[in-house]
Amino acid sequence: MAAPPVVDLPFVDERLAQDLASGLAEVEKLLRSSVESEDAFVTEASKHLIEAGGKRFRAMLVLLAAQFGSPEAPGVVPGAVVIELTHLATLYHDDVMDEAPVRRGSPSANARWDNTVAILTGDYLFAQASEILADLGADVIRIQAQTFSRLVRGQIRETIGPRPGEDHVAHYIDVLADKTGSLIATSGRFGALLSGASPEIVDRLTRACEAIGVGWQLGDDLLDVASDSVESGKTPGTDLREGIRTLPVLYVLSSDAPEDARLRELLAGPVAEDDVAETLRLLRANPAMVRARAELVAWVDRARADLSGLPDIPARAAYLALCDYVVERSG
């Protein structure tokens, strides 16, 4: 069995970290029991990614948001489990679409079994999340349905790409907001709402968490280009090899500067292995990286603006520290 997740976000208060660690232990217990089935294979497939570990980042944000109300409210931990089940379900489906052989250092479900099993297991996790939701009230069910709609819409829009005449950068940001930002936003919203926080606090945390989610994903774009594989654990240029057009790439492709001609040629499709080093060198030196980082900072500043209006408690300091980390990790 994988070890329980630990509190590894930049929290500034030891008591808060202890409270969150205790909450995460409860989340982990309910998460595992919620996927138990009379069918041993269903249980095994459903626990495949749970056992592989993970930071439980979204569940953590639910618990952190609940600090602005009553953290011990009975719906908080189930709400965090719903968020985590939803996230895990999307990973099963993502691995099928991406034909990914590995997830969290272990064989993906589609690699261990097959695509059909992976898809159906993801569906099962969505169903288990819905069963928990049924006890949390109509408002929470509605929010989850809206979030799920955004997740699917984001995936569809990413798959089909921008419409003719649509701005590619705006399309890309919208996809990030739907695919990544929406569930992180709902993490903050569930925590605040289920803990009984005021409507203003719920709204502020929802907006701030979505902005943090978009900023985090933009940071991944920069890390794919600028990271040191030894320090970050990422292989630089992974997105480039796969032909994924992240924000810095989109900025270059939209440029008509003569000095960018060679880089535009390299980025026209998946970058060949022999060209990765040259592409990384040119892209790292290109103003597109500065522009992309400025966009990240703008999203994080949106989050900070909402967070600054929250009560001055350790949880607010933790959220603000997280904003700092999202910027710092991008280089």
UniProtKB/TrEMBL annotation:
Molecular-function annotations in GO: heptaprenyl diphosphate synthase activity; metal ion binding
Pfam families attached to this UniProt entry: polyprenyl_synt
Family label: Belongs to the FPP/GGPP synthase family.
Source organism: Streptosporangium roseum (strain ATCC 12428 / DSM 43021 / JCM 3005 / KCTC 9067 / NCIMB 10171 / NRRL 2505 / NI 9100)
Top-level taxon of origin: Bacteria
The enzyme's E.C. designation: 2.5.1.30
Record keywords, A-Z: Magnesium, Metal-binding, Transferase
UniProt-listed InterPro entries: Isoprenoid_synthase_dom_sf, Polyprenyl_synt
Magnesium found in the keyword field: yes
SUPFAM superfamilies tied to this protein: Terpenoid synthases (SSF48576)
Record bears the keyword Transferase: yes
Cofactor field: Mg(2+)
The protein's name: Trans-hexaprenyltranstransferase
Classification of source organism: Bacteria, Bacillati, Actinomycetota, Actinomycetes, Streptosporangiales
GO biological process, one term: isoprenoid biosynthetic process
